[in-house]
């Protein structure tokens, strides 16, 4: 607005005194020719100043500053053609191949896979064993043992290896789930939909909160050694997941926090039960009382340990088939998990309240760790029949599971960052009034660079670098998209724009136009007179 | 075979609606005579809290000058019914944006997420692509705009653009937009993003009317559409299965005098299959944890070992106190010289002109 007023002021000042004079002179009939010519020169000079100096000045001072964005590169990235490559080493155990066959095995064999392989109905026999690190052992079917040709052997192995790779690295459904922003998953694949809804979206950091709920402090004095439990059980997993995201952990104890649901007494078990349908209503009343870290906007994972009060002990959770749940815990997608810990076993023959109870953290952390794996998207859907997976060990995460997570996170990050800058570019294109500052342009450029590097690393198969570049791309794209200066408040409907400019420019332009028209008509008259004279 | 069947059952729970959390954003206008707008918003806020959405997931924008207004005969209360049955202000109202913070700019910033980094969590809309959002706006409106705080306007084009930006960044799964103003239907005419459902209390050219005045308080307490909407919501509890088609029937013309309208063409699911609690409540999806991890290593006791005293002891240091004595006896800062203001110049010009007018120009040489 200031710019408009400055330029308008200049334009109107440039003619205020001078305009009236030649206008009056030119309108006066009793002017000498030299005075009239002076008037005409003045009008021409003013018109020239207005057009040559005034109009560009007005244009420059009222345009919005828009830094240059690499739109062509963004559009190229938007096509999102990713090439994911996995290096596989196949080691043949001694005795499976004859020496001649060994020599003829092709050293490398690339397989371009674009479609999902339909799962075959294999027999329920253990044929593949997937280990903790990145190895798997395949058992060749019985019919292949006796000398077959190399071709047949390889043909037999290929689909099996593909299947193993799909479990250990990524499959078509995993990638589709990671791209669920852009690609709505096909309705047939309900499992992957459930998986994609359960796990948190990729984020640079997560907050994990462990809460102990003690509704009955008069009866139970609970002691839980959360610090060392976190250090010993949870921290190894989080350290292993460090390339994927940052984690911050805190814990709290809530007293007099009740569940929102009344458990029912089941006389057959002589215990209280929570049915599966009532579990959905447990979380909300508790959530209102949970504290959270107000400093960051990272997603929060809540893990609650509920110790039922003495009157409602023991408390068991029943699943949909009214069976007792072994873990006595449940989780909510994208929120966290709740475990019920019964302490009535600790009551001696003559309980004296309040009782001191030490909670066995190994059992509790076992459940929380399993829920954490599910919520972070580490656990995948059921493995194909015939596969046996080794347990994940003390870190709670096998190497190949980490790889799997990194693949899907990288693809998700790349897709999200691409969508973000594409939509940002489209938005800025559509709305011409938004100011694009230099820092936004710089963020967008760095996003584009990081994305190109991430895509290149994915092609080469360097997972670690690809993930790092994709994280940088996401951070920069979010910063650019959510920059507070990009607010579209400069929306003026066209009629308002006219209403602003007409009172400023119309009174000024009318005299100029009139004087120019007058000069033109006089010139035409003179030409007519000259022609008449000649004739 | 067994594993596959179980996973289908599990997935069946999810397939009802694709959302995992709920958010609500509410808004209103200021001044004592707009009491009913605040009462509207607070009543909707209350219902939404009752049905389960926690305060951390509600962004309440309220001018908040009713309860403690000098004209309020019952201070610290806001009533929604003329028999003063329900004090909707209560003890646990958590207003996130109050007073002068309720502006069009802040509202659009909350929706699009373009807030300065210093904004706390409670003032942000931290929704993701699986969130169902309910937006309730009330106040004075016209054909294509809504008044904010009686001094600003938000137009339907801006609102539609804001929703489109939310969609681009996948900040919602489904969005329900309810507006209770005059000519409210004009506000949802320009929407063009998918998964939006909109309800308005009146069509273009019609006015939304208020419900009943209260003679003790002296103002109208509530608007008709919201009054009947709340009557409808009172029958909803967290486990109810009422769907959106019933919500569309709320407040027919006979009760509301204006014709409520709704828009569902941008919504992908059939409104008959959408539960009220999908938007107004917060019913969590829950899964039983089937697997656990066997952790056998014993927990190491953290002993209080006096290890090299320096490492264990955290060095606390305090920030230097403000040098109070220096501040008290500080000399005033030298201000930069500015040329005299226009007013001073004009005044001196006037004085000089008057002087020369009266005494003539020949006195000029005495000055210079």
What's the helix and strand layout?
The complex is a heterodimer of chains A (535) and B (368).
Chain A: H1 2-27, H2 33-62, H3 71-78, H4 99-104, E1 128-130, E2 136-138, H5 150-168, H6 172-178, H7 190-198, E3 205-214, E4 220-223, H8 226-240, E5 246-255, E6 264-266, E7 271-274, H9 283-287, E8 300-306, E9 315-317, E10 329-332, E11 336-340, E12 355-358, H10 361-376, E13 387-389, H11 399-430, H12 438-460, H13 463-481, H14 494-534
Parallel strand pairs in A: 1-13, 3-5, 3-8, 4-12, 7-9, 8-11
Antiparallel strand pairs in A: 1-2, 6-7, 10-11
Helix pairs in contact in A: 1-2, 1-14, 2-14, 3-11, 6-7, 6-11, 8-10, 11-12, 11-13, 12-13
Chain B: H1 2-14, E1 21-27, H2 35-50, E2 58-62, E3 97-98, H3 104-112, E4 131-138, E5 141-142, E6 145-148, E7 152-155, H4 156-168, E8 174-180, E9 196-200, E10 210-213, E11 220-223, H5 224-234, H6 244-248, H7 253-256, E12 261-263, E13 287-288, H8 309-312, H9 324-328, H10 342-359, H11 364-367
Parallel strand pairs in B: 1-2, 1-4, 2-3, 4-8, 8-9
Antiparallel strand pairs in B: 5-6, 6-7, 9-12, 10-11
Helix pairs in contact in B: 2-5
